[in-house]
Amino acid sequence: MQDSSRIIVIGASAGGVKALLRVVPGLSPAMNAPILLVLHIGAHRSHLAELLDANGPLRAVTAEHGATPQPGTLHVAPPDMHLVLEGGLMRLVYGAKEHHARPAIDPLFHSAALEFGPRVVGVVMTGMLGDGTAGLRAIKACGGTVVVQDPDDAVEPEMPRSALARSEEHT
């Protein structure tokens, strides 16, 4: 990846599949940024990458340890592993659950903020509790762009509300 490239990180939980199936078809096939996605799926088998691949213009794959994020590709965190960025590569880590979840959103967002600073776009979508809030604050503190789903449009508004309420607090 070139230094000038952007990276997009997305986090969702309850209601996330429905929300992603509304967003993914509208993405531009000319998207020149990799997209890394965490959905709270726990240790359950997941077909999310295949589902998104079949419903959008961009290729969607399950993230692989040690792989380089590819522009125009959705990289989906696999079950029961945190997805993080380190040295420009995707790493899959079996770490402690965060916000009762593995994969969790905050590990990805924090690592993206550290790796890509102002070139990160962080997106928090529908879900319960506050996963993604601290990571979104880290992205903002590093000069990145933050986007939060309108809580009134979310199946579960708690995560977007948490992100909005705390995005203006000092880190």
What keyword list fits this structure?
alpha/beta; 171 residues; 22% strand
Can you give me a brief rundown of this structure?
By secondary structure, the protein is an alpha/beta fold. About 25% of the residues lie in helices and about 20% in strands.
Task: Describe the protein's architecture and organization.
The protein has 171 residues and is an alpha/beta fold. Helix content is 27%, strand content 22%. The protein has five helices and eight strands; from the N terminus they run βαβαββββαβαβα. The strands form two sheets. It has a six-stranded parallel β-sheet with strand order 3-4-2-1-7-8, sandwiched between helices. Helix 3 (105-116) packs parallel to helix 4 (133-141) and helix 4 packs parallel to helix 5 (158-166). The N and C termini lie far apart (29 Å).
Count of alpha/pi helices:
5
Q: Report strand %.
A: 15-25%
Q: What strand order characterises the main sheet? A: 3-4-2-1-7-8
Low-confidence sequence ranges: none
Could you tell me how far the N terminus lies from the C terminus, measured between alpha carbons in angstroms?
A: 29 Å
- Oligomeric state: single chain
Which geometry do the CA atoms define?
Answer: globular
Number of strands: 8
Taking the sheet with the most strands, its summary is: 6 strands, parallel
Order of helices and strands: EHEHEEEEHEHEH
Helix content: 25-40%
Radius of gyration: 14 Å
* Overall mean pLDDT: 94
Structural class: alpha/beta
